[in-house]
Amino acid sequence: MSQSNPLTAILEREPFVLLDGAMATELEGRGCNLADSLWSAKVLMENPTLIRDVHLDYFRAGARVAITASYQATPAGFAARGLDEAQSRLLIARSVALAQEARTVYLAENPQAGALLVAGSVGPYGAYLADGSEYRGDYQRSAEAFKAFHRPRVEALLEAGADLLACETQPSFSEISALAELLTEYPAARAWFSFTLRDAQHLSDGTPLCDVVAMLARYPQVVAVGINCIALEKTTEALRHLHSLTALPLVVYPNSGEHYDAVSKTWHHHGEACDTLAHHLPEWLAVGTKLVGGCCRTTPADIAALAG
């Protein structure tokens, strides 16, 4: 684990760091049934090679950062499958190893590719609840309870060699505060924090983003802040507001331009065909965004379009 910002080497060469896109969308396209509370983490148990292959496809599309399939990989979640904490930590470590294997293959194919990173995904407590509360933040736990929940995964990801942490899809101020404090137990760790939002100026739980950013500013281990798993058309306004609050690099990886129909359980594209991640890239860069990728329903093709 680097003592400095692991993103620096890429940003010295390129105008922004290109992240990967959706893991679950690609796994479903390869025949995985993810109708499960563990979501992509289920595949860590059942068919991990597929996860490595998805990471490799994203590197081949131009991604510089692979985000591990550990978003819902926690001892609490795996306990429902009869696994103890030691077994759970091994699966979380496997999520890092699979991304590292993909990186090794890609670098063998492209020796001049430069720095490629593995970001350990740390999803919110709401993801474990598997009830959509990562978009509401309406759950309450003490700071110590949040830290106890996240600590085993954070430790497993760092011990397995993740270059940094992606504390992502975070809806709750109290949980974000606890996670930031937890990082101080691992001084070499670096992390970005990305949020889900109620609107362009408020976290999903209603906390003003100015308060969130001011709190995170006390933690030098935080190397970027931003948003993910947000509707594409809502990104720029929120990023513009964040840019007014912090000098940190901003991160954005929204959902595709499609919208989910909860009744038919299908996705549909609304609006103009040009409403893509690549279409929004210039305005994102103009407001200080330095990490860009995709979340739900995005694919290697979307990442390749961002790579140009």
Automatic annotation (TrEMBL):
Hcy-binding domain residues: 5-308
Record keywords: Metal-binding, Methyltransferase, Transferase, Zinc
SUPFAM superfamilies: Homocysteine S-methyltransferase (SSF82282)
Positions annotated to bind Zn(2+): 229, 295-296
EC number(s) stated in the UniProt entry for this protein: 2.1.1.10
GO biological process, one term: methylation
Cofactors named for this entry: Zn(2+)
GO molecular function, one term: methyltransferase activity
Name this polypeptide is given: Homocysteine S-methyltransferase
Record organism: Pseudocitrobacter cyperus
